[in-house]
């Protein structure tokens, strides 16, 4: 279980609260959808859960233990812009091995070509680089994956391909996913019923039933 | 108003030492836009969408060679003419506030666009205020700096920059990714209004859903070529002609959400035949022999030998 209890966060003591009293929980193998307009603290919440930011109040636990403060974090986040999530001076093979070496079957499934390995990030297109960023976290040390607008910049075909692979990985390895997106049809596709969360203006989490398609 | 036929763009790059290589980033690209029409250009990243915009604005890098024809209002678009027309007759709605000057209020910037188009300062300011008002921007918006705008307000300011030019052709480059659905619809409606006012609009996007909300016609790009130009309603009615367009439509989450495996061919080694042949479910030996011609089939254009009327 990945649990967040009573999270509060602001970027500075004189700045407004971005995350207020958030509580949520997700289990291995579940896909939780998170939807809200821009500026409602979705990405901040994602960063808190992945250990990029420390909550001002409240706590995050993974199987009743706090997140490890060093080493590979079992909660990984994939951002919208892969260009900003990889080291621009590293070649692709080094980027892929930054955490734990990825499994070959996922490289194949994502359509990652061996000729990309010796290239630099700027020599790949956005869709190609996002697949690298995703392949990097598809290893057995990842327990929860936060997909923050992971496919918003990509064409429909690449989006479908990536979600196919990520969903298969999550099911096989019992990885829980939190999908942050504006795309209602996409969330309808990947989330289990009753697993769609909307952030409200008062910033409290509220479960919304999945609309029937 | 705008006709592009058989456009090819090749970059010359130094490979190793003095050895040079040619990258055919756009090959046999076709597109036309009428006055009062909104044409969406959709395709994956690397399919040549943004390069087309750069070619129309005449801002390609110096190592690019351009062949084929680009005609705007009956005369060829030469580099000199591009330079004269850009910002006046051909305008760009940029992707994000990153394209604005961060140290200048947005009011001044939009006013300046009017002045660069020959208006004196007073009328340019009035035009700026009228345009902001038209887009329901709050009264204090002209005094705001770009970083003080919300995502939705920023879109409206960016559309305003194109509106004050009175341009006949407006190119919007990826105006919607990562925005909330309400802001997306609002931005698209503004573009639609520009077309209704008699301008030609090119909407460059990877979001088919967004394109279909407002476009009259949709041009589908793949690996630097136009594979199909279809009417927007052809998508919903299943009247699609090219296997790639069909695959793209099927891969939407609200449809089947299935992907075609593989990648776009890289510009360094394009196949001699159809550019989609290595991923196409309908491929035959003929497909590998030559690039298919652009044909008129079922009221739309397609570059596939298997499309039947």
The overall average pLDDT of chain B, rounded, is 90
Strands ordered across the widest β-sheet of chain A = 6-7-8-3-9-10
SS element count, helices of chain A: 6
- Beta-strand share of residues of chain A: 15-25%
Helix content of chain A: 25-40%
- Using only C-alpha atoms, the radius of gyration of chain A works out to 17 Å
Assign the CATH topology of the domain at 2-64 and 72-84 and 137-208 in chain A: Rossmann fold
Most residues in contact: chain pair: A-B, 32 and 31 residues
- In CATH, the homologous superfamily of the domain at 2-64 and 72-84 and 137-208 in chain A goes by the name P-loop containing nucleotide triphosphate hydrolases
- Please describe the biggest sheet of chain A, giving its number of strands, its sense, and whether it closes into a barrel: 6 strands, mixed
Based on CA inertia axes, which overall geometry of chain A fits? globular
Description of the molecule:
The complex is a heterodimer of chains A (213) and B (309). Chain A has a 6-stranded mixed β-sheet, with helices on both faces. In chain A, strands 2-1-4-5 form a 4-stranded antiparallel β-sheet, with helices on one face. Chain A is built from 6 helices and 10 strands; from the N terminus they run E-E-E-H-E-E-E-H-H-H-E-H-E-H-E-E. Chain A starts with a strand and ends in a 5-residue tail after the last strand. Chain A has a domain at 2-64 and 72-84 and 137-208: 3-Layer(aba) Sandwich (Rossmann fold). Residues 203-213 of chain A have low confidence and may be disordered. Chain A is of the alpha/beta class. In chain B, helix 3 (106-116) crosses helix 4 and helix 5 packs parallel to helix 6 (181-196). Chain B has helices at 49-57, 79-85, 106-116, 121-134, 151-163, 181-196, 208-214, 233-237, 243-250; strands at 2-14, 20-33, 38-42, 64-72, 75-76, 90-93, 169-173, 200-205, 217-222, 225-231, 295-297, 300-302. In chain B, the strands form 2 sheets. In chain B, strands 6-7-8-3-9-10-12-11 form an 8-stranded mixed β-sheet, sandwiched between helices. The model of chain B has no long low-confidence stretch (mean pLDDT 90). In chain B, strand 7, helix 6 (181-196) and strand 8 (200-205) form a beta-alpha-beta unit. Chain B has 9 helices and 12 strands. Chain B has 309 residues and is of the alpha/beta class. The longest helix of chain B has 16 residues, at 181-196. Chain A binds chain B through residues 37-39, 80, 111, 113, 125-128, 149, 152-161, 163-164, 182-186, 188-190, 213, and chain B through 42-46, 150-151, 177-183, 206, 208-209, 247-249, 251-254, 257-263.
């Amino acid at each position: 279980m990945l649990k967040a209890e009573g999270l509060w966060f602001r970027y500075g003591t004189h700045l407004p609260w971005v995350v207020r009293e958030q509580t949520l929980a997700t289990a291995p193998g579940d896909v939780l959808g998170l939807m809200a307009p821009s500026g409602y603290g979705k990405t901040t919440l994602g960063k808190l859960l992945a250990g990029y930011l420390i909550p001002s109040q409240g706590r995050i636990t993974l199987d009743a233990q706090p997140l490890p403060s060093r080493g590979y974090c079992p909660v990984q986040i994939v951002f919208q812009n892969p260009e900003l999530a990889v080291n621009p001076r590293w070649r692709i093979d080094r980027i892929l091995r930054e955490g734990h070496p990825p499994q070959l079957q996922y490289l194949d499934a994502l359509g990652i070509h061996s000729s990309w390995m010796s290239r630099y990030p700027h020599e790949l297109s956005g869709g190609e680089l996002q697949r690298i960023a995703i392949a990097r976290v598809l290893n057995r040390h990842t327990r929860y994956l936060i997909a923050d607008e992971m496919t918003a910049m990509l064409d429909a075909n690449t989006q479908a391909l990536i979600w196919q692979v990520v969903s298969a990985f999550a099911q096989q390895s019992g990885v829980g996913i939190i999908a942050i997106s504006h795309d209602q049809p996409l969330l309808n596709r990947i989330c289990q019923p009753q697993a769609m969360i909307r952030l409200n203006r008062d910033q409290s989490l509220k479960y919304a039933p999945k609309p029937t398609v | 108003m705008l006709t592009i036929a058989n456009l090819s763009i090749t970059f010359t790059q130094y490979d190793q030492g003095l050895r040079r290589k040619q990258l055919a980033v756009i090959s046999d690209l076709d597109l036309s836009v009428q006055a009062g029409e909104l044409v969406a250009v959709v395709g994956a990243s690397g399919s040549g969408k943004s390069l087309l915009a750069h070619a129309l604005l005449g801002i390609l890098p110096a190592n690019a060679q351009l062949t084929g024809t680009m005609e705007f209002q009956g005369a060829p678009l030469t580099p000199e003419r591009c330079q004269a027309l850009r910002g006046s007759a051909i305008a760009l709605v940029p992707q994000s506030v990153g394209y604005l000057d961060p140290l200048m209020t947005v009011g001044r910037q939009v006013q300046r666009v009017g002045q660069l188009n020959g208006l004196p300062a007073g009328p340019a300011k009035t035009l700026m205020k009228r345009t902001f008002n038209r887009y329901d921007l709050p009264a204090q918006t002209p005094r705001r700096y770009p970083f003080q705008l919300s995502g939705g307000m920023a879109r409206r300011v960016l559309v305003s920059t194109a509106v004050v030019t009175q341009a006949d052709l407006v190119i919007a480059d990826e105006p919607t990714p990562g925005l909330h659905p309400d802001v997306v619809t609002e931005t698209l409606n503004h573009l639609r209004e520009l077309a209704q006012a008699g301008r030609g609009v090119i909407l460059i996007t990877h979001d088919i859903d967004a394109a279909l909300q407002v476009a009259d016609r949709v041009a589908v790009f793949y690996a630097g070529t136009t594979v199909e130009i279809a009417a927007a309603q052809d998508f919903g009615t299943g009247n699609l002609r090219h296997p790639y367009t069909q695959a793209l439509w099927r891969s939407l989450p609200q449809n089947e959400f299935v992907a075609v495996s593989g990648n776009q061919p890289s510009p360094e080694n394009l196949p001699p035949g159809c550019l989609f042949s290595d991923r196409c479910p309908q491929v035959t030996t003929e497909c590998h022999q030559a690039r298919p011609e652009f044909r008129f089939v079922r009221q739309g254009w397609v570059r596939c030998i298997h499309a039947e009327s």
